[in-house]
Design goal:
CATH topology: Ribonucleotide Reductase, subunit A
Number of domains: 1
Keywords: Monooxygenase, Oxidoreductase
Helix content: 55-70%
Strand content: under 5%
Protein name: propane 2-monooxygenase
CATH superfamily: Ribonucleotide Reductase, subunit A
Distance between the termini: 91 Å
GO molecular function, one term: monooxygenase activity
EC number: 1.14.13.227
Low-confidence stretches: none
Order of helices and strands: HHHHHHHHHHHH
Catalytic activity: propane + NADH + O2 + H(+) = propan-2-ol + NAD(+) + H2O
Radius of gyration: 23 Å
Number of helices: 12
Largest sheet: none
Mean pLDDT: 95
Structural class: mainly alpha
Number of strands: 0
CATH architecture: Orthogonal Bundle
CATH class: Mainly Alpha
């Protein structure tokens, strides 16, 4: 008896899900595309929300800034659940290794007095800033229209609470295993003069009804605060004998670079929208006009405290960074009416 082995290729009846094929054609799609495109609920809502009967449960008019097609925007990172979790797990593991290195050598207790005070009075209280930023991002994830935008905001919310937890770990290490610095940090957040403009801005953004306003308002602070704390002070720490600060700052700086990728792309998409682009530009310019001065004031107060503690030229850095931010927004046509 003889056997003849043959290879037979069975062509799939379709290359991807029908809702993806309707948009991209019947061809193989990426996991990101299959888990993102056209999954926003658009019909068959049973009732309008009792707290806002003027809107549907999912409604594109929750913000004045809109896209003709919300899926014209795609996350440049192509993040869906698996790559997001893998990427962030690696980031968190790297942070824990740095913290373990610092703890093993007791580097935080060896910091110069000014740098140790900077951690206790500026950095550790900012876990409450990150916690507020998480809530702002959660609000955006709830009220944004289009899964491609919602999932970026959801991941940003997870990132923010992760950052708050990492800062908490720094506070526990600074307190040599106790919560003393975390308790003191909360008191600084509530009462310290240098943090009140920042705290006020976060609280006002938390009650803002338009999720784009709160998202962009928060971003304006980030554009000034992150470069100050995690780039400028990182470089200053090297010359100030505070290498432990630099080891910790690098992880937040890395995250901020990633955050900019999806947010800058979204702002560009809003402005380029064929139907709403002109109106979006005006709305975004109004947001910048309102919130950029507050953001500069808030971060300047933090820089003033920083300058007093470690004398790194923080005030000059914030002034220079604010000019750069203004220039970047001006190139997008968003600061015509903003006063210097």
């Amino acid at each position: 008896m003889q056997y003849e082995l043959r290879q037979r290729v069975i062509e799939p009846r379709r290359q991807t899900f029908q809702y993806v094929a309707n948009r991209l054609g019947d061809k193989p799609a990426s996991r990101y595309e299959e888990g993102t495109l056209d999954i926003q609920p658009t019909e068959n809502f049973h009732y309008r929300p009792l707290w806002d009967p003027s809107h549907e449960l999912y409604d594109e008019t929750y913000s004045a800034v809109r896209l003709t097609d919300p899926y014209s925007y795609r996350d440049p990172r192509q993040f869906y659940y698996t790559p997001y979790v893998t990427n962030r797990a690696a980031l968190h593991d790297a942070f824990l290794k740095s913290l373990a290195y610092i703890d093993d050598r007791d580097l935080l207790t060896k910091l110069p007095v000014g740098w140790a005070s900077l951690l206790g009075t500026v950095l550790v209280p900012l876990r409450h800033y990150e916690s507020g930023a998480q809530l702002i991002s959660v609000t955006g994830a709830r009220f944004a229209y289009g899964a491609s935008i919602e999932q970026c905001l959801s991941y940003a919310a997870f990132d923010r609470i992760g950052s708050a937890q990492m800062i908490s770990r720094i506070g526990i290490s600074l307190g040599q295993g106790t919560d003393e610095d975390l308790i003191a940090g909360k008191e600084h957040w509530i009462g310290a003069e240098h943090l009140q403009p920042l705290r006020r801005m976060i609280e006002e953004l938390l009650v803002e009804q338009d999720w784009v306003v709160s998202t962009i308002g928060l971003d304006l602070v980030d554009r000034l605060l992150y470069p100050l704390l995690y780039r400028h002070l990182d470089e200053a720490a090297i010359g100030g004998g505070a290498s432990a600060y630099g080891l910790l700052a690098q992880h937040f700086a890395t995250w901020y670079v990633d955050q900019r990728k999806w947010l800058d792309a979204l702002i560009a998409e809003w402005i380029a929208d064929p139907t709403h682009g002109t109106a979006n530009r005006k709305q975004l310019a109004a947001i910048v006009q309102t919130w950029l001065p507050h953001a500069i004031d808030a971060v300047t107060a933090v820089a003033d405290k920083t300058e007093a503690l470690v004398g790194s030229g923080a005030l000059d850095f914030v002034t220079t960074t604010a000019d750069s931010v203004r220039k970047e927004l001006d190139d997008l046509g968003l600061v015509e009416q903003v006063q210097s």
